[in-house]
Amino acid sequence: MKNSYQIYLISDSTGETIDRIFMALKAQFKNFEYELNQLSFTRTENQILKILDDIKEKENPIILYTIVNSKLAKFLSDESRKKKIPCFGVLGDLILNFSKILNQRATHEPSGQHVMNEEYYDRIEAIQFTMNHDDGNQTEDIENSDIVLLGVSRTSKTPTSIYLANRGYKTSNIPIVNEKSIPQKLVNNNFKFCVVGLTFEAERLHDVRKNRLAHLKEGEGSDYVDIEKIRKEVEYSKKLFKKKQWPIIDVTRKSVEETAASIIKIYEIKNKKNV
Fold first, then answer.
1. Domain containing 256 — which CATH number?
2. How far is CA 151 from CA 69, 174, 238, 245, 260, in A?
3. Do 257 and 166 sit in the same domain of this protein?
4. How many CB atoms neighbour CB 164 within 10 A?
5. Do residues 168 and 122 make contact, with C-beta atoms less than 8 angstroms apart?
6. How many domains does the chain have?
7. Which of 46, 48, 69, 178 is the most buried (most CB within 10 A)?
8. Is 115 exposed, middle or buried (0-12, 13-18, 19+ CB in 10 A)?
């Protein structure tokens, strides 16, 4: 019988950082059964004592934490050790080592990455722009985009666009129906923004679309899920991207994060050429 673990992600802020770190960590272990417990905005010793009091009754608990206040982090580590609960900090040594290299003291401020500075407002602007330019909308000012994504239906254009927007990139996405669906400003091929074509294996795309229709409780008697029509759509989009010399990414087996990372790399290369 496999052990099941109680994972506790303790953070002094929103918990976004520790959540991402745990997602990357668990991906390294195929046979890992767990129940996740997220505890955000933990900023006092009393909070920690209450959490540990609850945890000690659980089977196979493991604590991962991001607490930037070194005194509070040490308190959590010491108290966990007393109760024989495995406890791992993921920022402490990193902050200390960076402090030594940079020859300056860390602020130890929770939510330091969420300061409402110019970068924060640029990200909010990017999100608003991207939402307004989803699925072929508002193409008349497409030249204000940082990135333009094209692809047939269900090639992860919208989720990838939103992810990029959260990274600060103004992103437009356009569904490929035929060549007339391409805005004239893209046809001219005279632009500074980054254009990327997204493709998907036809058979897998067929399954994705079938699941989409099932979720919407709609019938399957349409070209939308016709495998031959899907093959033609995919083939047409590939030919179009090659004709326009736009970079192509096959997203069939890629997560949104992986696709976005590839797009950002393409964007950076294009920007260097434009400098």
1. 3.40.50
2. 46, 7, 9, 14, 14
3. yes
4. 25
5. yes
6. 2
7. 48
8. exposed
In tens, the pLDDT along 243-273 reads 999 999 999 999 898 999 999 999 988 887 7
Do 87 and 132 belong to one domain? no
- Model confidence pLDDT, tens digit, residues 129-175: 999 999 999 999 999 999 999 999 999 999 999 999 988 999 999 99
- Picking from 23, 163, 155, the residue whose alpha carbon sits closest to that of residue 147 is 163
pTM confidence score: 0.66
State the amino acid at position 140 in one-letter form.
E
Q: Which two tokens stand for residue 22?
A: 């745990």
Q: Give the DSSP per-residue string, the chain.
A: ---EEEEEEEESS-SHHHHHHHHHHHTT-SS-EEEEEEE----SHHHHHHHHHHHTTSSSEEEEEE---HHHHHHHHHHHHHTT--EEESSHHHHHHHHHHHTS-----TTGGG--SHHHHHHHHHHHHHHHTGGGTTGGGGGG-SEEEEESTTSSHHHHHHHHHHTT--EEEEE-SSGGGS-HHHHT---SSEEEEEE--HHHHHHHHHHHHHHHT--S-SGGG-HHHHHHHHHHHHHHHHHHT--EEE-TT--HHHHHHHHHHHHHHHHHHH-
Same domain, 36 and 51: yes
